[in-house]
Design brief:
CATH topology of the largest domain: D-Maltodextrin-Binding Protein, domain 2
Number of strands: 11
Helix content: 40-55%
Distance between the termini: 61 Å
Oligomer: single chain
Strand order of the largest sheet: 2-1-3-10-4-11
Shape: elongated
Order of helices and strands: HHEHEHEHEEHEHHEHEHEEHHE
Radius of gyration: 23 Å
Largest sheet: 6 strands, mixed
Length: about 260
């Protein structure tokens, strides 16, 4: 038997076996997700699960939805955006930066009043709440009330209850909701307004009240594939977001799933 043809058939057989044995690695791709800071714990779990299930590499960038949306508008190379409110996703849709037909309402949440002192008495959040009295000389930690979703929801709730004007000078605004949580956890602010899921992730704070759902716009986290490129890995991640593994990760952190 001639040596050269035998080697060619052997090489071809080896290549075919390698392709059959390692299809995920051959098709692997990178997916970059820009996600609201309040999703930090859930996304850490989802990142590990998605990579193990698909072979794709996932990079998650966490910040305030407003900051992430502006980065996307300026050309940041993100593939998927998960916002903590519809407004910033609306802005990207208006700019033609969202792949048509991929947007979905993914999650819901609640906003709560938290305290650093574990002995702080729970309160009913209503128009007669003496929030200024609870604060004393301290500050109320909130995410940016004109830009960051958690801050926007929090200010809307305080406004609707008639509480904003009495405490506005004492509000300490932060770049994102996790920074507001950190201020309270460290004792630098006695009280703060954050998402229920943030409070659940931090042992050094105590929830002392939940804002009525009708005191602020519905808290909705939309997710969408961005229009800069179209890959199988992006489609796989969007599907994974509503699958059983991601659902369990979100629910363990206290989110309510909206997408089926």
């Amino acid at each position: 038997m001639p040596v050269r043809p035998f080697l060619s058939r052997t090489a071809a057989l080896a290549l075919a076996m390698t392709t059959a044995l390692f299809p995920l690695q051959a098709a692997a791709d990178d997916v970059t997700v820009f996600a609201a800071a309040s999703l930090a714990n859930a996304m850490a779990e989802i990142e590990t699960g998605f990579e193990a299930a698909t072979g794709h590499a996932l990079t998650v960038s966490l910040a305030a939805s407003s900051a992430l949306a502006r980065q996307i508008q300026q050309g940041a190379p993100a593939d998927i955006f998960i916002s903590a409110n519809p407004g910033w996703m609306d802005a990207l849709v208006a700019d033609g930066l969202v792949e048509p037909g991929t947007r979905r309402d993914l999650l819901s949440n609640a906003i709560v009043l938290i305290a650093h002192d574990a002995d702080t008495t729970p309160v009913e959040i209503a128009p007669d709440l003496d929030l200024a009295g609870l604060l004393g000389e301290g500050r109320l930690a909130m995410a940016l009330v004109d830009a960051v979703p958690a801050g926007i929801y929090g200010k809307a709730a305080l406004d609707s209850l008639g509480l904003w004007d009495g405490i506005a000078p004492q509000v300490a605004q932060t770049d994102n909701v996790r920074a507001a949580l950190a201020l309270v956890a460290a004792g630098e602010a006695p009280l703060g307004i954050v998402y229920a899921t943030d409070a659940a992730a931090e042992d050094r704070v105590r929830v002392i009240g939940t804002f009525p759902a009708d005191s602020h716009p519905p808290i909705v986290y939309p997710a969408a594939d961005l229009a800069n490129r179209d890959t199988a890995a992006e489609a796989a991640f969007m599907a994974y977001l509503t699958g059983p593994e991601a659902r369990a990760a979100f629910e363990r952190q206290g989110f309510t799933m909206l997408a089926e």
